[in-house]
Design goal:
Elements: H1 5-15, H2 19-26, E1 34-37, E2 61-63, H3 74-77, E3 81-83, H4 90-95, E4 102-105, H5 112-121, E5 126-130, H6 134-146, E6 152-155, H7 159-165, E7 170-176, H8 197-217, E8 218-228, H9 237-246, E9 250-253, E10 261-262, E11 278-280, E12 290-297, H10 313-329, E13 337-341, E14 344-348, E15 359-361, E16 364-369, E17 374-376, E18 392-395, H11 400-407, E19 411-412, E20 417-423, E21 426-434, E22 437-440
């Protein structure tokens, strides 16, 4: 890998005697592979990951270098785990998300940090996952659905537009800011071609605008984590200094994450104490370059409450058909605020005001109305637990039946109506039984 001369010059000045070790690790090409478990689904570590080394800063993250598993494994389709670069697990781990929190992931695609945050909420509170680029927002929505996040709304807006709607609204905010990507050079060498000092400076200006919007949306007493995957001080410590100087009610907090290096505040000549911010270097930690800073906002705010939105006539008619399906096929009654978008029925945990906000996923997609009947959405299956289904059939991940199901084939079964296919107790999707056969409802676009 041929690194830009200006990049090497700056890193040599930053790291001093450590620079040669950094360069050796950086050019090795040995990028660590990581897997993060879905804590909302897994009460213990599945056997396939039990011998893997834990990521120091994430108790439910593992190094997966020696795990023979791919995106075609049934556990992946069931939302049991997420492939995530180990360093990227640090930001949400630092945020201390609690059940009931209102959480915003402001730059969320493809969904690593959003699914990590959503799993910690365990179906409570609210997660708004935002992505400004439409195609990336669609990928984000797919990943949140696969993870079974029932309390997640995916939006496709600018941070400025969101801040107009959600002033001092969120308890916790994740700002994984778009950056120059220096920390990913080893994993994505093509990023080297886009690098320049001017690019890092333009990224810093964009990051300032993003954190300005985030500040407006953070509640009094709330916390915001700022992270990047770059080594550039102007995008890291420089943004910390910008926040602290512009907003006197914002303070850096200690992350208490294991194994991280302190920030390089001295390098930018800052008069502020930035030591609570942390870095991940490839010559010191098993992960790509990353920066994490946790901020707290002074004051206290009351917990927001939104009554469920009153349903109109068409939504009530759709809800009636859904309740008939629920009575027939499920052991659980879902409650909250119901919305009808065309023929698609969604559930969100609160009556959130989304007027004027471009929304990709308006909550949990329950299903679709088709000729006065209700057809459940695939997204509903991973959002439920095994005991929530009245009819179900469970197969081992390596079984021929699971391979047939993921391929889209018809299965054999002895029940009538909608039921779930599980693997090791984790819901994969729906089938519809009739005459000893189970018609496959696994989405065509996901089939192997």
């Amino acid at each position: 890998m041929l690194l830009p001369a200006d990049f090497e010059k700056r890193m040599r000045k930053m790291l001093g005697s450590e620079y040669e070790d950094f360069l050796k690790a950086f050019k090795s090409g040995n990028a660590a592979r990581g897997i993060r478990l879905n804590t909302a689904k897994c009460s213990s570590v599945p056997e396939i990951f039990s011998r893997s080394e834990q990521v120091p800063w994430c108790p439910y993250g593992f190094y997966a270098d020696n795990v023979d598993i791919s995106g075609n494994h049934p556990y992946h389709f069931a939302g049991v785990f997420y492939f995530q670069e180990p360093s990227a697990m640090a930001a949400v781990s630092a945020l201390d998300i609690n059940k009931g929190d209102f959480v915003l992931d402001l730059c969320a695609a493809p969904g690593g940090k959003a699914t990590q945050a959503g799993a910690l909420l365990k179906g409570s509170g609210l997660l708004v996952a935002n992505e400004i680029t439409p195609k990336r927002a669609a990928v984000l929505a797919e990943n949140t659905e696969r993870f079974g996040l029932s309390n997640c709304i995916v939006t496709n807006e600018s941070p400025e537009k969101l801040s107009e709607k959600f002033t001092e609204f969120f308890d916790k905010i994740i700002v994984d800011a778009p950056c120059s990507g220096e920390g990913m050079f080893r994993k994505e060498p093509q990023a080297v071609d886009c690098w320049s000092i001017q690019h890092t400076q333009s990224c810093a200006l964009r990051q300032q605008n993003i954190v300005d919007s985030a500040y407006k949306m953070l509640k009094r007493g709330g916390k915001m984590v700022y992270s990047t995957c770059t080594f550039a001080p102007e995008e890291n410590e420089g943004i910390c200094e910008y926040i602290l100087k512009k907003y006197p009610d914002m303070h850096l907090s200690e992350t208490h994450l294991k194994g991280l290096s302190p920030a390089e505040g001295a390098y930018i000549g800052s008069s502020l104490d930035l030591s609570s911010a942390k870095r991940i270097y490839p010559h010191k930690q098993r992960g790509e370059g990353h920066f994490v800073a946790l901020f707290s906002k002074d004051g206290e705010s009351e917990k927001l409450y939104f009554a469920p939105k009153k349903a109109d006539k068409k939504t009530l008619e759709a809800l009636k058909l859904y309740r008939e399906f629920e009575t027939d096929a499920l052991n659980v009654t879902l409650d909250g605020s119901f919305s009808l978008f065309g023929d698609n029925l969604y559930l969100i945990p609160i009556g959130l005001p989304l007027d004027g906000i471009k929304t990709v996923r308006g909550g949990l997609h329950l299903g679709t109305l088709k000729k006065n009947r209700f057809e459940p959405s695939h997204a509903l299956a991973p959002a439920l637990k095994a005991d929530d289904f009245k009819r179900k059939i469970n197969y081992a991940p390596e079984s021929a039946e699971i391979k047939k199901y993921l391929h889209g084939d018809v299965l054999s079964g002895n029940f009538e109506g909608y039921g779930a296919v599980l693997t090791d107790g984790y819901p994969l999707g729906f089938v519809k039984g009739s005459g000893g056969l189970l018609k496959n409802k696994f989405p065509k676009k996901l089939r192997i």
